[in-house]
Structures are given as C-alpha cells and as structure tokens.
Amino acid sequence: MKTGAVSVVYTQSEILQREELRRPKYSVYFIYFSNVISKSDVKALAEADEQEVVAEVQEFYGDYIAVNPHVFSLNLLGCCRGRSWDPAQLTRTTQGLTALLLSLKKCPMIRYQLSSEPAKRLAECVKQVITKEYELFDFRRTEVPPLLLILDRSDDAITPLLNQWTYQAMVHELLGINNNRIDLSRVPGISKDLREVVLSAENDEFYANNMYLNFAEIGTNIKNLMEDFQRRKPKEQQKLESIADMKAFVENYPQFKKMSGTVSKHVTVVGELSRLVAERNLLEVSEVEQELACQSDHSSALQSVRRLLQSPRVSELDAARLVMLYALRYERHGSSGLPALLEELRSRGGTDRYRKLVSAVVEYGGKRVRGSDLFSPKDAVAITKQFLKGLKVPSCHGKKGTDSTKTAEEEQGWQECCGLLAQNWGFIERAVASGPDSTENNGSELLESFSVPNSRVSLRLQGIENVYTQHQPLLQETLDQLIKGKLKDSQYPYLGPNTLRDSGGWTDDEQNWGLAQKSLGCGGLISPRMFPGADSRDWDMSHPGLLARMCHSHWEAQALAVFNLNRSNPGVRIVLGGTTIHNTRSFLEEVTAAGFRGRSADSSQVPPRSSSR
C-alpha cells in the first residue's frame, strides 16, 4: 500500500536540510510552496529527488495571515534595528507582501512615504520581485490600476498608546488576541472550558456584528443575546416523550449548543473587560489620553496627568503611557512639565522600565523624526477648515416649510457658536490671508492663537459626540486624501517608472483625476476564499484596488478606520496590512527591541528625516 505526504514549507531549505527527498519516508510527495520559488530552487529539488518520489510541486500564494476581510498580518516582531530593516525580516516581509499581491491577482503601482527610508527600501524590494517575476504579475489590466501605498508607522506613535473602546480593539488591548485566540486563564474564577476562547468573525455571528461597535453598545447587545438564549432554553430542555421529540432535539441541539457556547464566551469576555475598566480606572484615564491627543490646553493637560499619576487605581502601564503621550504632545513646549512627571513616575515605585521608555518613545516617534505634523493641520487654510468643520446648524433653521422655532438647547448652541466665531474671527482672517503655503504664519503658530474657552463647546464645534473617541489615526487622513486624489506626489512619490502607468498613457493630472473619479475602488483585492465575508463585488476584477501597507505594523484603531472608509465610500475597497497587529504592550516591546533605549536629550541627537514637507 502506497502512502503520500503533503508538505507546506516557506522555502525548500527545510525539506532539503532533512534530506527528506534523498531518504524518503513516503512513496509520493506533493510539495506546495507558499510563495514564489526560483528556478535554481526547483533544480535543487530535482537533484535531491533521486528516487523520483515528488509527484507535484506547486506555488500556493498564502504567505500571510488573513485576519479580517480588509486586514492581513505577517505575524512578525522585531523587524528593525534602529531605523533600518533587519535584512532577514525585510526579505520575509517582501515575500509576504508579494504573496498577497499574487493571491489577489494584482500588479500595483507603488507609492511610498518619502520621509521614511524603510518604506522606500521595502517598496524597492517589492518592485524588484515584480520586475523579476513579471510573467507571474501579468494580470488583466484595469481602467485604473491598483495601488500599493507603503507607510511608516513611526509617523503616528500616538494611536498605539491610546485605550480603545470598540469591542475587537478593547479585547486586543486589554486581553490580547493571538491568531484569533484569547487567553483567559488569568480571569478570576474562570472555568476550564473558557481558559482559551476563539473570536472569529467567520464563525461567530455575534462577534462579526459587534466587533466595531463601542463598549456601551456591546453591553446592550450582550444583554439582548442572553435574553434570546433564555427564551430558547426551556424549549430545548422539554421532556422527550416521543420519537418526534427526540428527533427535534437531535436536530436543534447543535444550534442550541453553539448558541450556549457563544453566550458563555462573550459574557465572560465582556465581563472581564468591564472588570479591568473599573479596576484600572480606564474611563478617566482614557478621557485624559484623548485630551492629550486632541486638545492643546497645556496647563489643563499637565494638571490632569499629575492628578492621575497620584491615583493608586492607575496602573503602572497606564501612568507611563499618559506621560508618553504628554512627552510626544508637548515635546518642545516652553513650559514642559516632563521632568516633574518623570519624577512622579519614579516616586510611584515599581521598575524603571516604563520611565525609561518615555524618552525611548520620543526618540522613536518624536517631532524630529516624524514626516508629518501629527497634532495640528499642515497649513493655515486647513486650520480654518478644521475650525469650521464641525459647526452644526440647527435643522429647523432656514428650511422651507419647517417650524422655525428653536429649542432652548438649539438657541444656546447658536449663541455659543456665534460667540466663538466672533472671538476668533481675527484668527480666521489671518489663516485665510496667510494662504496654504505661507511660512510667515505657519499652522502651529496660528493654532496656538485659537482660543476655545470651554471644552464642551469645543467638542460641539468638532462634531464629537463621545469624549473617549475623539482621536482619529493619521492613517485615516492619509487615505482620505488619497481617495480624493489629493495625496501629494512630492510626499508620497511613485517608485520609478511603472509599466502599467506608463503604457496606459497616464499623466499625473489624468491619473489623480481618475483616482478621484473612481474613488479608488478596491474590488478584486479581497478574495472570498482568502478573506471570508467579502461580497461578490470584492473580487470583480473590473474594479481598481488599493493596498495600504504599514511599514512595519498596524493596530486595531487603524483597522477600524479602514473599515469605516470602505463602508462610507461605496466604491472603495482598501486592504490594510503590516508585519504585526500591535497593542500598547507589544508596541513598547518592539520600540525596545529596535534599540531605542531612551537616551537623554543631551546625549541623543537624532538626525531628522529627509522630507520635502
């Protein structure tokens, strides 16, 4: 009797090093590589197959992890040494990214972040593979070619330091998600069956419907799930008095068992999240985090951070990340209170690890090395637009055929908005007069002169309804500009001449107009087999595509931003990926592993990135 073996390997080295083919244990071998294999590798395999046991060799492009319909990961940590790639990790990342492109049948145009040398290096490596294996990438051309945008995550060191309040992001931040598995073994009183649970949108309807909802909505939905389960439970436990009863029970039992497991799992997870939120005082901590990330009142922020550092309910990690956020936000403020905050961190006791990480995070993602202005609009006109963006006119005002009577609340809103416009009119005039390219009155200086006396009014002006979710990742702004065709070539250039771009006769203006008109629809980037849950439009090859590739990793808040962009722009299909999906702990571990040790300001002279901004 003949037996066969199927081996899935990253390279041929494993099977050759074991001399598996020279001394075969099986009569037939079917070998499937998860990426491109070179002709020299095929030759080496043939030479090792002295007994001719290899029946088939295939390339199966699956060298990455499909996390969600719009998210992938390579599950790699420690990719850089300082600001340069680790050579082995660069090779592995290039392999994973090219495998993704091949599995989605895309030969993209490539753009990269000019201010990032790692982003440029990765773009060059991907381009080299596409050029070398041009026959594999010879896919049917689309009217607007797909686009691969490679970004550097160090441009936004704020997002991974913030607490998140949507279900999936909270679970990853507070409990940790590893390949859809969550370790609950440390939960007090946990049963044996629930020490490890799986959260997968493909197999868990409740999770799929709630993963991007905020925590308050999750509480309501989990209550509804339990009530639905209780209504069904008595029917399933009725007496089995006939063959028909037994048959009905057997038919319905798998569904009942599945629902029982779903209820138990999510009640346990949500219960543990609630316990951690209360135990670590995360509501108050998160409010101050958002104030640091989104507001510019230095005195209020410093006072809030100091107050929380003195609270015994605030954990060592949460205290440190508040100081990290303060250090990034007010890095060059004339009245910086960072030394005093570091001293308060020291006085809290514990290890010096987090205290040293404060300066390490600034070295990693501080103002000297960022390619973008993370905390304020980039020019005066943008500042004015930001100021006016959230002004909400009461729905009854000025509409024909409606009652023009305003409620007391609406009247108060009008008075507050008009008062702020009058108070800051000089700011608006100066911003408009300075123009988008003015160097005399830059955005940061004008923003300092913008006075908002009341934070409640400020939130209303910005159109924010939840104080815990004010912050939006920088990635969202970048992709929004790209969708509108406004992402500047000078900041995100194309990587050299591209055959698809040039052969089609595109000019820069025509291409930007085409991208804007098509809204960068990304159908075809998502294969239903690779990304469960994608609808049929997602792989209609007549649509163009966009891949946003973070160099080197991304986090759940960015995945949420991409999800919302895909949902709010019907023609858009964006896939986001990175070397790993970070939470705060893993992000800080990688900052340390990259060699950022938090040297003092006197001894650390970090060269600024070259950028045209």
UniProtKB/TrEMBL annotation:
Q: How does it sit in the membrane?
A: Peripheral membrane protein
Task: Alphabetically list the UniProt keywords.
Answer: Membrane, Protein transport, Transport
* Gene3D superfamilies associated with the record: 1.25.40.60, 3.40.50.1910, 3.40.50.2060, Syntaxin Binding Protein 1, Chain A, domain 2
Q: What is its main location?
A: membrane
Which GO BP annotation is one of this protein's?
vesicle-mediated transport
Q: Which InterPro entries match?
A: Sec-1-like_dom1 (IPR043154), Sec-1-like_dom3a (IPR043127), Sec1-like (IPR001619), Sec1-like_dom2 (IPR027482), Sec1-like_sf (IPR036045)
Any single GO CC term annotated in Swiss-Prot or TrEMBL for this entry: endomembrane system
What subcellular compartments does it reside in? Endomembrane system
Sequence similarity: Belongs to the STXBP/unc-18/SEC1 family.
What is the name listed in the Swiss-Prot or TrEMBL entry for this protein? Answer: Vacuolar protein sorting-associated protein 45
